[in-house]
Specification:
With 594 residues, the chain is of the alpha/beta class. A hairpin with an 8-residue loop joins β6 and β7 (134-140).
């Protein structure tokens, strides 16, 4: 295929030429989104061992991939925002001068695709050609990346059509290079709409449409253009009368977004006709609608979900979603029937198996505590496979939000649920989020850190300016969503979860929706409104009223310490911290002192 005949956009051609001159691939192949090309790439990747074809009867069109052992999660310490002015990256992001970054990474990319093919992936975040969609071109030397991007985004020649002769796009360049950890960089140039990623082959580091574009670059675009890019699931809560309320929720990585988005209500709710519909499980692009509400759409086309813990009980919808056309990364390979397994799938680990590192996973290995799957092993599955996919998934308008929910993993401190006292107070609640770290990023697991709006690793600019943007957005909407905070992870003194979670979270969603409809009262506390215990339906939940009361307690002494921690956290933003948030902190302190 003659590239210049198909690609009419000079800027795309120039981007390909310049990148090819740098990386020096043997071949350049345009990804057209066709089944023929996909099948050929799958076959090629199977022949080299890059992916393994799984049992066609049990898992049709599914594949297994193992990354390098040193390359299993996002690398936050090697992720940089490269804007001209260091201050604009803020105190939380790593920063590099753009000139230096291009030079440093240019040396790494130099000749990196020699002997390899450079694939050109035209993709759309959002429905191709729709008003709120945005286009990216990713250049990569990895077939695994191509196959994943074909699931996670909308890929094909129609994207080039929609881009037109001089449309703008986000330029993404990725090379596995040699997978050298010491030369692994995930670089963002928000002022140039550019992303460079080298020496990784893992998920969020290399599927450049996802965190790099749809969150880091898009959050920067959103600040300048008056919209928001958030690390949020979107779900529809359908009531027995058919009316559906939409909720977006921001939880940090591996803290329950996919699970909540695909929730199956407990029997008592199903009998009455309640349903949950999935619009998105990871990213929401949010804008102001003509009706004065906030509207959210999911720019992705698939799910890159955490495998461990996903099972027939915790998340049957996710499990079902992964039964065809799915790529599994870093899970165990069951050799008895050529399928996959991970911790928490069931209680029967396969006898004859290979672990995520590619080693035999035998009785001795199991006895020694070797895991079959990596804790951050993932499935890449098409959204259309999901049994509870919302009919709004394909609606370019997205959905109007009734509620925004923040939440994290907190063993103590945060109650099961509370409601903020309005927009600015809600922004405060999001800004003070804290959560235990997970295996989704390299580094220690289980350490509590501040993760404002679950965007700490994903905000493409100064976090103080990001808070200010949230405050501004509230001024633009006549009917803003109500803002809540949840915590499914509160522990008792023995270290057990107090709340059963998963499907049972429906009981909390019901309270949230009723609050949005002003159908239920609440109890005021120093941090916001908590439910009157009688207003959380515990029927068949196995949770006692005493436990619920414990889950809803707001301990003043704990929160006074928390307030000191918030003050400390806020200091680093200096005069870029919106005055509304300092006022909210002062109000919290005053409430606690009462
Ligand atoms: P990313 O894809 O990394 O952004 O994460 P996510 O927020 O979509 O995470 P996911 O839903 O996959 O959550 C994964 C982890 O959270 C697993 O360890 C689950 O077992 C756990 N989890 C999810 N929901 C609940 C819950 O309601 N209660 C408890 N205790 N654990 C939960
Ligand atoms: C996350 O870490 O929040 C993810 C997975 O959703 S990744 O795409 O690897 O970032
Ligand atoms: Mn995520």
């Amino acid at each position: 295929m003659n590239m210049a005949e198909v690609i009419k956009n000079e800027k795309v051609l120039r981007f390909i030429d310049e990148s090819a001159a740098l990386c020096n691939p043997d071949k350049i192949v345009l990804i057209d989104g066709s089944k023929e090309q996909r099948d050929a790439l799958r076959a090629e990747a199977c022949s080299t061992g890059e992916i393994i074809k799984l049992n066609e009867d049990l898992l049709p069109e599914c594949y297994l991939h193992r990354t390098a052992v040193n390359d299993v999660a996002r690398v936050e310490d090697r992720t940089f925002i490269c804007c001209r002015n260091k201050d604009d990256a803020g105190p939380i992001n790593n920063w590099m001068d753009p000139k230096e970054a291009y030079k440093m990474a240019g040396d790494i990319f130099k000749g990196s695709m020699k002997g390899r093919t450079m694939y050109v992936i035209p993709y759309s975040m959002g429905i191709v050609g729709s008003e709120f969609a945005k286009i990216g071109i990713e250049l990569t030397d990895s077939i695994y990346v191509v196959l994943n991007m074909e699931i996670m985004t909308r890929v094909g020649l129609d994207v080039l059509e929609a881009l037109g002769k001089d449309g703008d796009f986000v330029k993404g360049l990725h090379s596995k290079c040699t997978l050298d950890e010491s030369k692994r960089y995930i670089l963002h140039f928000p002022e140039d709409d550019t992303i460079w990623s080298c020496n990784s082959g893992y998920g969020g580091n290399v599927l450049l449409g996802k965190k790099c574009f749809a969150l880091r670059i898009a959050s920067y675009l959103g600040k300048n253009e008056g919209w928001m890019a958030e690390h949020m699931l979107i779900l529809g809560f359908e009531k027995p009368d058919g009316d559906t309320k939409y909720i977006a929720a921001a939880f940090p990585s591996a803290c329950g977004k996919t699970n909540l988005a695909m929730l199956i209500p407990p029997e008592i709710y199903r009998k009455k006709g309640y349903k949950i519909w999935t619009v998105g499980d990871d990213i929401a692009w949010i804008r102001v609608g003509a009706d004065g509400r906030l509207w959210a759409m999911n720019p992705e086309n698939g799910f890159f979900g955490v495998a461990p813990g996903t099972n027939e009980k915790s998340n049957p919808n996710a499990l079902h979603t992964t039964q065809k056309g799915t790529i599994f990364t870093n899970v165990a390979h069951n050799l008895d029937n050529n399928t996959v397994w991970w911790e928490g799938l069931d209680k029967n680990p396969p006898k004859n198996a290979v672990d995520w590192k590619g080693n035999p996973w035998d009785d001795a290995a199991k006895a020694a505590g070797v895991k079959g799957a990596h804790p951050n092993s993932r499935f890449t599955a098409p959204a259309k496979n999901c049994p509870c996919i919302s009919k709004a998934f394909d609606d370019p308008k997205g959905v109007p939000l009734s509620a925004i929910v923040f939440g994290g993993r907190r063993a103590k401190t945060a109650p099961l649920v509370y409601q903020s006292k309005g927009w600015d107070n809600g922004v405060f609640v999001g800004s003070i989020m804290a959560s235990e770290t997970t295996a989704a990023a390299t580094g220690a697991v289980g350490v509590v850190r501040r993760d404002p709006m679950a965007m700490r690793p994903f905000c493409g600019y100064h976090m103080g300016d990001y808070f200010a943007h949230w405050i501004e957005m509230g001024k633009k909407v006549k009917n803003p969503p109500k803002i809540f905070n949840v915590n499914w992870f509160r522990l008792d003194d023995e270290g057990n979860f107090l709340w059963p979670g998963f499907g049972e979270n429906m009981r909390v969603l019901e309270w949230i929706v009723k609050r949005c409809e002003e159908k239920v009262g609440a109890v005021e506390t120093p941090i916001g409104y908590v439910p009157d215990p009688k207003d959380i339906n515990l029927e068949d939940s196995g949770v006692s009223e005493a436990t619920l009361k414990e889950l809803l307690t707001v301990d003043k002494a704990t929160w006074q310490k928390e307030a000191d921690g918030i003050e400390e956290f806020y200091k680093q933003f200096g005069d870029r911290l919106p005055k509304e948030l300092s006022a909210e902190l002062a109000a919290l302190k005053a409430n606690l002192a009462k």
